[in-house]
Design goal:
This protein has eight helices and nine strands. The chain is of the alpha/beta class and 240 residues long. Strand 1, helix 3 and strand 2 form a beta-alpha-beta unit.
């Protein structure tokens, strides 16, 4: 019933849970350090349909932490690089690729493109991030959001919690504040870390546009976050 490459997942989960994953459609917005590995883990878990969204191209400075970033892919669209990788993992994957940056006002339309089983927010910039979360809550689409992995080195401090329980993370603080303005206080799962950031490892520069600053990163922390986000999606889908 299931292809051979899913045999280990079938052994672990059983046919009923794996069937739920195969029949699910997951939206992943943002394919950077967290989103790239997250999308891959979701595909490897056996989710049968995915929509991936990212308008950025690979820069060699991404090479220390992003799945699509290789010397051979420099300058290529992350969404297209990831699409090739995901289809190579699962040739039967139903995949929609959107290689475009979405503004705040476009998130409702993005969520209206399909009946998504789950939405994943791995967006770096605050406005579109909050807009996606707000639209998901309003449309009743289960959603999980990745907070900041930059500047952090200790994977044991990473947590999964409702956004109302997040703490000591600057990005989570800003997201909570914006959501509160729309009357949203709970109901969004997040991956965050309260680990303190060394501010000497943060530089303000125009090169960070549309963000205002660059922050130091290490290879494994975005991957840890991405795997934790994927675990939320996969477990909620097969337990639901």
């Amino acid at each position: 019933m299931f292809p051979y490459w899913m045999s280990r997942s079938q052994l672990l989960l059983g046919e009923e849970k794996l069937e739920k994953l195969v029949n699910s459609h997951v939206l992943v917005v943002g394919l950077g350090g967290i989103g790239g590995i997250c999308a891959e883990m979701i595909a490897r878990a056996g989710v049968g349909a995915m929509t991936i969204v990212d308008g950025d191209t690979v820069d060699l400075s991404n090479g220390n932490r992003q799945i699509p970033a290789l010397h051979s892919t420099a300058g290529k669209l992350k969404a297209e690089v990831m699409a090739g990788r995901l289809k190579d993992i699962n040739p039967e994957l139903k995949l929609e690729v959107i290689a475009a940056y979405h503004q705040d006002t476009e998130m409702e339309g993005l969520l209206a493109r399909s009946h998504f089983s789950y939405a994943v927010d791995c967006i770096d910039t605050l406005g579109p991030k909050v807009a996606l979360l707000k639209a998901a809550v309003e449309k009743g689409v289960p959603v999980v959001s990745a907070m900041g992995a930059g500047g952090k080195t200790d994977p044991l401090q990473a947590e999964i919690a409702d956004i109302s329980k997040s703490h000591d993370c600057k990005l989570a603080k800003y997201v909570r504040k914006r959501l509160h303005e729309s009357g949203i206080y709970t109901g969004i799962k997040v991956v965050f870390s309260p680990e303190e950031i060394d501010q000497e490892r943060v530089i303000v520069t125009e090169k960070a546009f549309p963000k205002k600053s660059l922050i130091g990163t290490i290879s494994y922390m975005p991957a840890v976050f991405g795997c934790m986000v994927a675990s939320v999606v996969v477990r909620d889908l097969y337990e639901g």
